[in-house]
Write the structure tokens for this entry.
Amino acid sequence: QVQLVESGGGLVQAGGSLRLSCAASGGSFSDYAMGWFRQAPGKERESIATITNSGSRAAYADSVKGRFTISRDNAKNTVYLQLNRLKPEDTAVYYCAARTIYYTGGYLLTGDNMNYWGRGTLVTVSL
């Protein structure tokens, strides 16, 4: 079983950037497809970026495409989310999640697909 811990959230002005990290422990990291999800107050959880086991391929939600980049370092057991050109509507708790599957990409994984979750990190974007 893998444990996931997110970090890097905070308060940023619109147009700014943040880099989120998710450190995994337990299990073999490359056995897991990884993803980032978010949930804004009063809204449903949203899948925003998922990445293949090798890190060679990623998929994004339309709401973040071109602004956010997911990556992973299997040697460090860490997945990242680079958030650029942030907007107030990006304000949410961001979660990383893992799924025990060999994921080859080409589609965005949904939250229902994922097996393990972190506790989240809050990103607040001000005007």
